[in-house]
């Protein structure tokens, strides 16, 4: 428990660091919110109008003052107002987040339920044709860009079966689970494909290592069946690298999957951040990056806790 | 013939190969033997002799290591009186005999138990597989199995995972697991090689006792004839995949016929209570030469932190107030069990760990101006891991020279060639890589590397422990010769009393971070005074003391963790003879 508290104590420092970097980076990009919002019509503004708009958005102040205002706002839960949406940044993010979270969870579920068995299957048939087949499939899955996978899936469905993926307004899971899953399943498969390929490869190599360990031989000497040797004795010992990989991938997915959201027209975090950058929506970019960084840190902490749960040799307290 | 007169195991003309059929390499060439019911058979040989392969063929575990039985029969007399030819048994039959009829104990208890499962779960598994027990029944059976191998506090140990137990305890757990379903045959594959000598004695005593209780048969695999002398009825000696001699224990020990058996019995170091100790010590000279190395009040502590703000809560006193001196041309052996601080002492002398306190004085024999390192060099235990596989021998030997800031020139190359010749390696070795050498040759390479800088002190940390017994003897000879030639002082760290007896002039016994007894090797080994030294020497298996009963003792080594600011009481020493002193325990 004290380990979790120690880790949590480091969170604010990291978040402040991240926020400063993002704050500066987004302002180094040429252009500002007013020009981005009004497009060519920005040229029609009189200097007075422009200045009053700048005052309204708070971008007339020097950077340190802007940062300080934004930073103090954080403590009252105020991440600023999004210029593009005209709403508080936090509510914009929280509107988008459930979709992204669900997509990431589904993709991981698919990846693990395909990747782990496939990796185990390949490892137990090391260097035989079945192993080779799995490895080639994994290589293809990993090296094919997700937009190709997504387009191929859509093409097959529409050309082959005459169905189109459910588009239109996003339905949250709690409103209509079936409708929601219908919308989410294809994007999740698209993301899950590459993810599953990496999981397969990591599981396979970890299992190969573990299968030559002494305790596997001990299990066999006790008369354990091959199935019990593989699933009960070997696999739990091979899971640490799989958890590491899944944690990293999951953390990335929580930041949004821009391409897949674009292909399937899903209103997720990834597209939101992209648009916010294009629109120079400073407050939204800052808020979103901070939110994504926080997610990443939470996922990392969970991964470390998972290590300790998987392997009693890993002691968190001393680290 | 009545069924009970039949041997439990009958092996005929067994051939085992490794690798794919096309390029198979045969490692066991036609082994035959019988094992009677209740009999203990020892298979003795060095690494690569095929002793483990032969034993693990009897339950076909060898299949999983890439081996294949190419011809021959292995007939196992099953509990129900039927006979099964293991070589052509199906998968079902094999999982049926493994654990139930043939139990196995392996060499490395630390790695042979599953790190993520509790001890209880691993023992219960045997009962589940062969007895169909579940839940509370299986748990009770597991507890009884632990109690049977004399593990104190069995109920609590069931919930422990392997990392929470010591090596000796884990080996008991292994035995409990192997014997869970009362197999009629137990294969013990070097079961004590990885353990300390006193723990080894415990495990051997336990095995002997369990064998009396259950009447099981045993195949005991070992490289150490002295060890099997205490337990075996019959002995098979194997060399290069063939049985060179087999017979009753007494005949093999007293009237060995085959030259290889004679070699194993005589050329290999056996412990003989100080009789074979060296007598060419530097302390015979008067006046005494100046010591090459003096260590005074060496202390190494590792602080333990805990709580909310990482406050120090105590310290592990790995080495506590160790002092000794080492004369030129002299060997001081530091003996002790794992955790006694002997390796930490060596590492502190080398500067690999920072001492908390203590003084060193090294008399530099060949110190050049500007030389930054002390002329102390080292040879480590595992010659397979201590040579960088990506460097050629020439690069490996040049490394110490480069580390001093010099560049390898003609003189250095000449020295390399001379040293290689001196340690007995072929001249063309310079361009070769470590994997092209055998274990013994690699250790010779390590010795040559240590001598490149012409050091005055060489630290040998278990330098021959990983080598086969006969290779061990030759490397020890080389070390003695080199010592005479260059006047080297050796600090020899070992747990093996037989080896220590061959090389040491003086012996220091370490226990719980402190030297408890130090002095002339002959005096310490033949007439130990400190209770711990006595216990240590009694535990060494010897051919002379075979069949001597060893009391089971389940005491644990005391904890080295001390509270903050703890200082041990000052040592008081009792003098026994000219060069032999013993710590008087407070």
TrEMBL record, chain A:
Chief place of localization: membrane
Membrane spanning stretches: 12-29, 103-123, 144-164, 184-202, 238-264, 284-310
Record keywords, A-Z: Cell membrane, Membrane, Transmembrane, Transmembrane helix, Transport
InterPro entries for this protein: BPD_transp_1_N, MetI-like, MetI-like_sf
Subcellular location: Cell membrane
Pfam family, one: BPD_transp_1_N
Membrane topology designation: Multi-pass membrane protein
Transmembrane as UniProt keyword: yes
Span of domain ABC transmembrane type-1: 97-303
Keyword Transmembrane helix applies: yes
Record Gene3D superfamilies: MetI-like
PANTHER family on file: DIPEPTIDE TRANSPORT SYSTEM PERMEASE PROTEIN DPPB-RELATED
Similarity comment text for this entry: Belongs to the binding-protein-dependent transport system permease family.
Protein name per its UniProtKB record: Peptide/nickel transport system permease protein
UniProtKB/TrEMBL annotation, chain B:
Catalytic activity: glutathione(out) + ATP + H2O = glutathione(in) + ADP + phosphate + H(+)
UniProt KW keywords: ATP-binding, Cell inner membrane, Cell membrane, Hydrolase, Membrane, Nucleotide-binding, Repeat, Translocase, Transport
Domain of life of the native organism: Bacteria
Location in or out of the cell: Cell inner membrane
Bilayer topology term: Peripheral membrane protein
InterPro entries hit by this protein: AAA+_ATPase, ABC_transp_ATP-bind, ABC_transporter-like_ATP-bd, ABC_transporter-like_CS, Oligopep_ABC_C, P-loop_NTPase
Enzyme Commission number: 7.4.2.10
Principal location listed in the UniProt entry: membrane
SUPFAM superfamilies in the cross-refs: P-loop containing nucleoside triphosphate hydrolases
Pfam families cross-referenced by the UniProt entry: ABC_tran (PF00005), oligo_HPY (PF08352)
Residues annotated as domain ABC transporter: 11-265, 293-537
GO MF annotations, alphabetized: ATP binding
Enzyme class: translocase
Function as written in the Swiss-Prot or TrEMBL entry: Part of the ABC transporter complex GsiABCD involved in glutathione import. Responsible for energy coupling to the transport system.
PANTHER family cross-referenced by the UniProt entry: GLUTATHIONE IMPORT ATP-BINDING PROTEIN GSIA (PTHR43776:SF15), TRANSPORT ATP-BINDING PROTEIN (PTHR43776)
Family, per entry: Belongs to the ABC transporter superfamily. Glutathione importer (TC 3.A.1.5.11) family.
Quaternary structure note: The complex is composed of two ATP-binding proteins (GsiA), two transmembrane proteins (GsiC and GsiD) and a solute-binding protein (GsiB).
Protein known as: Glutathione import ATP-binding protein GsiA
Taxonomic source organism: Aminobacter ciceronei
């Amino acid at each position: 428990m004290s380990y979790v508290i120690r880790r949590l104590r480091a969170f604010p420092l990291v978040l402040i660091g991240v926020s400063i970097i993002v704050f500066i980076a987004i302002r180094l990009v040429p252009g500002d919110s007013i020009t981005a919002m009004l497009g060519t019509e920005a040229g029609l503004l009189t200097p007075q109008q422009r200045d009053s708009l700048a005052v309204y958005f708070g971008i007339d102040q020097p950077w340190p003052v802007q940062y300080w205002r934004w930073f103090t706002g954080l403590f009252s839960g105020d991440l600023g107002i999004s210029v593009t949406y005209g709403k508080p940044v936090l509510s914009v993010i929280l509107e988008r987040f459930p979709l992204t979270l669900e997509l990431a969870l589904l993709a991981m579920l698919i990846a693990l339920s395909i990747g782990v068995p496939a990796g185990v299957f390949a490892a137990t048939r090391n260097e035989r044709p079945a192993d080779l087949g799995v490895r080639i499939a994994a290589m293809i899955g990993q090296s094919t860009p997700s937009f190709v996978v997504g387009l191929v899936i859509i093409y097959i469905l529409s050309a082959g079966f005459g169905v189109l993926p459910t588009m239109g307004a996003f339905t949250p899971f709690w409103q209509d689970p079936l409708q929601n899953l219908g919308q989410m399943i294809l994007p999740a498969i698209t993301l899950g494909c590459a993810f599953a390929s990496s999981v397969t490869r990591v599981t396979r190599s970890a299992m190969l290592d573990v299968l030559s360990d002494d305790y596997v031989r001990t299990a066999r000497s006790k008369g354990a069946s091959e199935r019990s040797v593989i699933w009960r004795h070997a696999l739990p010992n091979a899971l640490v690298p799989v958890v590491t990989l899944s944690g990293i991938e999951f953390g990335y997915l929580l930041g949004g999957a821009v391409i897949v959201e674009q292909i399937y027209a899903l209103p997720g975090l990834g597209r939101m951040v992209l648009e916010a950058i294009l629109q120079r929506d400073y407050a939204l970019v800052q808020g979103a990056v901070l939110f994504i960084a926080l997610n990443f840190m939470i996922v990392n902490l969970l991964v470390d806790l998972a290590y300790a749960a998987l392997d009693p040799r890993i002691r968190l307290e001393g680290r | 013939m009545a069924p009970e007169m039949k041997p439990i195991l009958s092996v005929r003309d067994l051939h085992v190969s490794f690798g794919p059929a096309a390029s198979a390499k045969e490692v066991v060439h036609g082994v035959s033997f019988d094992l009677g019911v209740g009999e203990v058979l020892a298979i003795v040989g060095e690494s690569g002799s095929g002793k483990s392969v032969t034993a693990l063929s009897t339950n076909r575990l060898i299949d999983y290591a890439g081996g294949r039985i190419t011809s021959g029969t292995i007939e196992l007399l099953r509990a129900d009186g039927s006979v099964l030819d293991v070589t052509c048994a199906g998968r079902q039959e094999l999982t049926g005999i493994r654990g139930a009829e043939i139990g196995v104990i392996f060499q490395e208890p630390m790695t042979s138990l599953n790190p993520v499962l509790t001890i209880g779960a691993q023992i219960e598994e045997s009962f589940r597989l062969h007895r169909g027990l579940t839940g509370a029944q299986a748990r009770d059976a597991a507890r009884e199995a632990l109690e049977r191998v004399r593990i104190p506090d069995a109920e609590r140990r069931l919930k422990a995972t392997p990392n929470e137990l010591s090596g000796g305890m884990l080996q008991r757990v292994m035995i409990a697991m192997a014997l869970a379903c009362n197999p009629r045959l137990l294969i013990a594959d070097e079961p004590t090689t990885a353990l300390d000598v006193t723990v080894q004695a415990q495990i051997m005593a336990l095995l002997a006792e369990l064998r009396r209780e259950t009447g099981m048969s045993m195949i005991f695999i070992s490289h150490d004839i002295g060890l099997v002398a205490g337990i075996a009825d019959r002995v098979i000696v194997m060399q290069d995949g063939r049985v060179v001699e087999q017979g009753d224990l007494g005949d093999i020990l007293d009237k060995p016929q085959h030259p290889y058996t004679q070699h194993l019995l005589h050329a290999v170091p056996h412990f003989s209570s100080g009789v074979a100790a060296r007598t060419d010590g530097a302390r015979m000279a008067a006046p005494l030469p100046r010591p090459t190395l003096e260590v005074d009040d060496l202390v190494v502590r590792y602080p333990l932190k805990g709580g909310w703000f990482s406050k120090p809560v105590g310290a592990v006193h790995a080495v506590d107030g160790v002092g000794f001196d080492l004369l030129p041309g002299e060997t001081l052996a530091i003996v002790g069990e794992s955790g006694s601080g002997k390796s930490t002492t060596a590492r502190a002398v080398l500067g690999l760990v920072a001492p908390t306190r203590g003084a060193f004085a090294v008399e530099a024999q060949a110190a050049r101006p500007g030389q930054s390192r002390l002329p102390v060099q080292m040879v480590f235990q595992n010659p397979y891991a201590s040579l960088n596989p990506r460097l050629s021998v020439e690069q490996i030997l040049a490394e110490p020279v480069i580390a001093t800031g010099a560049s390898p020139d003609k003189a250095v190359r000449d020295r390399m060639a001379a040293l290689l010749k001196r340690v007995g390696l072929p001249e063309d070795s310079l361009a070769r890589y470590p994997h092209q050498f055998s274990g013994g040759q690699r250790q010779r390479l390590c010795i040559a590397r240590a001598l490149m800088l012409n050091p005055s002190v060489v630290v040998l940390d278990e330098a021959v422990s990983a080598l086969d017994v006969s290779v061990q003897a030759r490397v020890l000879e080389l070390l003695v010769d080199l010592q005479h030639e260059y006047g080297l002082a050796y600090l020899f760290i070992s747990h093996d009393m037989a080896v220590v007896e061959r090389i040491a002039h003086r012996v220091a016994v370490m226990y719980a971070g402190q030297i408890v007894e130090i002095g002339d090797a002959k005096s310490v080994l033949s007439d130990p005074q400190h209770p711990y030294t006595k216990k240590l020497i009694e535990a060494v298996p010897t051919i002379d003391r075979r069949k001597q009963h060893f009391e089971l003792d389940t005491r644990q080594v005391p904890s080295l963790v001390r509270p903050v600011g703890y200082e041990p009481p000052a040592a008081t020493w009792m003098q026994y003879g000219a060069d032999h002193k013993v710590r008087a325990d407070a």
